[in-house]
Design brief:
257 residues, alpha+beta
């Protein structure tokens, strides 16, 4: 069961099952991990979901088996589709820590009053404040798969750092092949799927113990669908997610850099 002594783990009562992940690239190469990288990770599968999603009964949590019919890879949503499937036209800003990035983000109240108004309509494109790409080293604490085929990731600081803060990011469902973002988003999605192999997350959150180090690059995105009500993320981490800004889409991801 989860060890509540380490920040970033789920409530023990939410854990339904667990398994061990041997990253697929190491399994193929039969290689040892780099110094400081764990040989394996625990995956704690919970019934925790985002507050806007319907509760998942424990009995309905997907077991650790490959689905008979693999889920699709194409983006199947509508909310701010134009922005979500685009990569900002800007050079990447490098941050040494998540705290540094968070300090640069406009407040939720300012973005809710944005002119022109930001809507959740499919044709809602990027506004000026979202035309930023960022790059930084993070740790993947949890992930789930959303109905629109995005993988919803919860990134945070090094588990030994304080305060413990997290930010959401999305490995996007794929746009049409004609879109300029298609190649980068497909490469990112393929890298995510290759790392987890048959242990990809389902509709409820998986937590990773220890959290998985990653180097991430992507575009900033204001999640207007969470501008009212509770913020995103699993219940066990939600109080420490201080913003509804996301890295969305993730345009590059490297595991265990």
């Amino acid at each position: 069961m989860a060890d509540a002594r380490r920040p970033g783990l789920p409530a023990p009562s939410s854990v339904v099952t667990e398994t061990t992940l041997v990253p697929q690239h190491r399994a193929r190469l039969r290689g040892a991990p780099s110094p400081g990288i764990p040989a394996t990770y625990r995956i704690l599968r919970t019934n925790e979901v985002d507050p806007k999603d319907a509760p998942v009964p424990r009995a309905a949590v997907t077991p650790f088996v490959a689905p008979a019919v693999p889920p699709g890879d194409n983006f199947a949503g509508t909310a701010r589709k134009a922005a979500k499937l685009s990569i900002a036209p800007a050079n990447a800003e490098t941050f040494v820590d998540l705290q540094g990035l968070l300090k640069t983000l406009p407040t939720k109240s300012a973005m809710k009053k944005h002119k022109p108004k930001i809507t959740t309509e499919a044709n809602s494109g990027r506004v000026v404040e979202e035309n930023r790409n960022v790059r930084l080293l993070l740790f993947l604490y949890a992930a789930s798969r959303e109905d629109d085929n995005d993988y919803h990731l919860i990134f945070g600081r090094d588990p030994d750092s304080t305060p413990h803060v997290y930010m959401t990011a999305e490995v996007s469902g794929l746009p049409p092949k004609s879109r300029s973002s298609f190649t980068a988003l497909k490469k990112t999605r393929d890298a995510f799927k290759a790392f987890f192999g048959s242990h990809l997350p389902g509709s409820s959150y998986d937590f990773y113990d220890p959290p998985i180090p990653v180097e991430v690059e992507g575009s900033l995105f204001f999640d207007m669908s969470h501008a009212t009500g509770q913020g995103p993320g699993p219940k066990s981490l939600r109080k420490d997610i201080p913003t509804i800004w996301e890295i969305h889409p993730v345009s590059s991801i490297q595991f265990e850099p």
